Structure formats: C-alpha cells, structure tokens
Amino acid sequence: LHLLCACEAALLLVEEVQHLVRDLQQIDPHLPNIQTNIGLFHGNCLIGQWGSMEQLRFGSLSYDEARKLSGVAKAYNTQVVAHADVALGVRGCFRCNFLTNTDFGPCYILSARANSFELSPSP
Fold first, then answer.
1. Which of 118, 56, 58 has its CA nearest to residue 93?
2. pTM of the model
3. Cβ(79)–Cβ(21) under 8 Å?
4. According to DSSP H, which parts of the chain are helical?
C-alpha cells in the first residue's frame, strides 16, 4: 500500500506544481517554468546518526538512490522515475515504461494511473 501512496503522491505533486506555475505565470508571464524531478526507490533504509562525538553526522543511505533517480529524471527530461522494485509493486495501478539501466538497476518512467499494467521490458 505504501508504494501506491508514494506513486500517487508523486504524480499529484507534479500536477499541483504545474497548476501553481500556470497560475503564477498568469500574474507574471516572465516567470520561468519549474521542472519537478522525483525519484521513487523501495528498499531497506538506514537513517540515523553515526560518527564520533566531535563529528556526528545524520543521514539516510537509501536517500542516495532516490536522489540518483531524481537526477535520472532530470537528465531524461521526465518528471517521475521509479526503480524497478517500485514499478513491479504498483503493477495494474500505474503506467510504467522502461527508461534506462542504472548502476542500481533498471528504472521506469511513472506517468499516470493505468487500468492495466504496462511495464515494458528492458531492451
């Protein structure tokens, strides 16, 4: 269920940003477009603090994968990119088309709700 919610939230965010930009550009036509790039990753996550008392750091290890997927979305000029595990987890609910292979596996463009699963195979 959390994968479905994450995909729905990502697509709604993209839609809302597009509406906001349109509304703001009606007020000021010189405002630039905002490119929204979202990466969806599913897997184990390590979040917390590590290091010594002198140099304590907080972070997330799975955040890096999502950030990389967001970079893939930007590089391919698309808005929502999902890791293969996410695409497989939402089959039947969202349209997912193969985009490219990355160093952490294949990724797919998540574009819309779908009546039938359209996960195209990797080339």
1. 118
2. 0.74
3. no
4. 2-27, 63-75, 84-89
Q: Would you report the helix, strand and coil content of the chain in percent, each value rounded to 5?
A: 35, 30, 35
SS3 2: helix
The residue whose two tokens read 């390590």 is: 46
DSSP state of 46: -
Dihedral over alpha carbons 120, 115, 88, 85 (to 10 degrees)? 100
Q: Distance between alpha carbon 19 and the CA centroid of its chain, in Å?
A: 19
Tracing tokens 């490119």 back to the chain, one arrives at 35
Long-range Cβ pairs for the range 21-26 (8 Å, 24+): none
pLDDT digits (tens, 9 = 90+) for 59-75: 555 667 888 888 898 89
pLDDT digits (tens, 9 = 90+) for 9-67: 999 999 999 999 999 999 999 988 888 899 898 876 656 655 666 666 665 556 678 88
